[in-house]
Design brief:
The structure is a homodimer.
Chain A (H helix, E strand, L loop, with lengths): L3 E9 L2 E9 L10 E4 L2 H5 L7 E6 L5 H4 L19 H22 E11 L4 H10 L3 E10 L15 E8 L10 H7 L8 E4 L23 H11 L5 E4 L6 H8 L3 E6 L2 H12 L6 H4 L13 H6 L8 E4 L5 E4 L5 E3 L2 E3 L1 H9 L6 H4 E5 L2 E4 H14 L3
Parallel strand pairs in A: 3-10, 4-5, 4-9, 6-8, 9-10
Antiparallel strand pairs in A: 1-2, 5-7, 6-7, 11-12, 11-15, 12-13, 13-14, 15-16
Helix pairs in contact in A: 3-4, 6-7, 7-8
Chain B binds a DNA duplex through loops.
Chain lengths: 388, 388
Amino acid sequence: MVPEIVVLRWELWGMRGVQLKTVAPAVRPAFADTIIKGDCVAALEQLPAHSIDVVFADPPYNLQLAGGLTRPDQSLVDAVDDDWDQFASFEAYDAFTRAWLLAVRRVLKPDGSLWVIGSYHNIFRVGTMLQDLGFWILNDVVWRKTNPMPNFRGKRFTNAHETMIWASRGPQSRYTFNYEAMKAFNDDVQMRSDWLLPICTGGERLKDAAGQKLHPTQKPEALLARVMLASTKPGDIVLDPFFGSGTTGAVAKRLGRHYVGVEREQVYIDAATARIAAVETAPAAALELLRGKKAEPRVPFGALVERGLIQPNEIMTAISGRHQARVRADGSVESGSHTGSIHRVGALVQGFDACNGWTFWNVHRNGVLTSIDALRQIVRDEMAVAGG
Amino acid sequence: MVPEIVVLRWELWGMRGVQLKTVAPAVRPAFADTIIKGDCVAALEQLPAHSIDVVFADPPYNLQLAGGLTRPDQSLVDAVDDDWDQFASFEAYDAFTRAWLLAVRRVLKPDGSLWVIGSYHNIFRVGTMLQDLGFWILNDVVWRKTNPMPNFRGKRFTNAHETMIWASRGPQSRYTFNYEAMKAFNDDVQMRSDWLLPICTGGERLKDAAGQKLHPTQKPEALLARVMLASTKPGDIVLDPFFGSGTTGAVAKRLGRHYVGVEREQVYIDAATARIAAVETAPAAALELLRGKKAEPRVPFGALVERGLIQPNEIMTAISGRHQARVRADGSVESGSHTGSIHRVGALVQGFDACNGWTFWNVHRNGVLTSIDALRQIVRDEMAVAGG
DNA sequence: GCACAGCATGAATCTCGTC
DNA sequence: CGACGAGATTCATGCTGTG
């Protein structure tokens, strides 16, 4: 699935141009929305490099459960499970972690990101390995449980949280973060690194034929939903290398994302398949993400002058009233000896390195001091009606 | 050595009282309640082996900050750029961590325990090294900050917490944990692994002659108080190998514990000495008054969608029936061309500057128009236990 | 003296597209 | 790849100055 290069012809306010643009294929790859049976590292070799947008991983930390650990060279690790031989156990776990993280790193897109969830038993080793392999940690996010299991023996604090590490492929990656959507979600305050959510119980918890919980560590869908709403866009492909009961797949489908799962146990594959089949994708209108200004079409300041929303020679003022600037016909402005863009002059008159001229400068309209950003919004609204 | 009866007037974190108390003359080693000047590893060689009950360590975080960071108002953030936080590589940081942890391990009593605080920059490496050296992790405790610095560029989640690792010297250690005291402290429910506390500001924050913060990373006394009340007994000796502004010493003295500090900078030693001299030891009765107060938990609108109490694409209406809005999966809403949070869209459709979306919007439930504020109460009740 | 507005600041790995 | 320039972006709290 090679990105396609298309020729875009555009016309905007009487200006025309041609632009080359790469367009991701609308056709989803064959591996999308499938569960691959097998060991994590071996199964991931079936996927093409740089084909995954986001990874969510809930790796095992009990070495007995992990079983069959392999080193990066595929040789089997002789896992020691005696309590006294911690070093050998940790070494085995590190080899296992290194192997699956390398496999995941290969299939992750350069601008993709990765989530790993764990507890104090394993998360420190995972975090260290992530850093050693060149991943760039963006946040550690704490899932605070409303209803954790109490500490029955009264020997420690109630273990009431788990830790997720969110990392990009490297320091230069331009990962996805839906900042505006998260902020709206959180009543117009930035989303914090601590999330309060109940554990997975009740009807959401999958049961086996005997009525017992099917999977020991089934994660709540709300947790995965927040992960995907924060770090993916509709249509993205989310890989879960330890698929288990398929929470990642169910939430991906519900939110209009694609999933790829890797799972060794047929019983989990069967349960997850049935579970995902019963999920309906939310309507497209509900999946639109609130987008910030960065995602809106760029409107140059000159366009406002061109459209007559601001007159050549008109005086703009700062809110404080302390600064003024004169608009010139070409969209540049001058203030005393300073000339340049609205941003540059705004910075110069304040003695700053930078300034957002859109929010700094104002003009009088109907006797009211009006931000030029509000005038820009008029143009943007017109563009939206015209189909952007 | 007859026990003496004294009258104690106490004031502790805003509370006051008077108490009669018998004071038993304590035998303490010569190094108790002193600050050793020098490099951490070298200085610790002066202490006898197995002489310390609990260690609290706040090592350099290795922040790896690149350029400067400005707030939206263009003011410069005063970053931690001190020499002591600079390391050439992860390898160098690991070597440093290994060295001081080994030095600390030598002086720790067999049944002693150790706390280390850090952020995602370093805490994973510290945790891994602890495990590799044979320490036994008891809990990872999350310090949730009520007032963290925001993420100014909107590129990540607000980094709103730091992580403390609490570990015993080994799996067989019989460490101190004051379970009943912690439970009483926490209104008779088990103390959880997530603690909500403000950062150190205001009068508690030490200032230099110029009125600037003396130390870049001074920790709040309330944090240390909870650490010591949980894991030490009166008269215990607490070692802080990165003493800094001396919070550990001040709290140890206030709570009737002894401290040993190691610090390289004379300016910090002087400030900590003066600070600790001004501290009075509190009577036990004062400590019983320490209760975690629970604020009403904040429930963002997105959480209602996340929890399934409101469906994506569902229509909300104003009481008047004049306005409608559609809910999207990310917790944002849209009404015509208006998009944003419940509050913002509520304001926009009415032409107001502000609106409380919780009381403005309603949904139909069992044929009845129901305020979304009522749905919020359902979630709030579930969350009350977790302490906001 | 009090109320209120405005300012200052905190362990931070904090831009992106185009030429 | 680097340089350049447009332009996007903050929450809780405590202190200071003013009326």
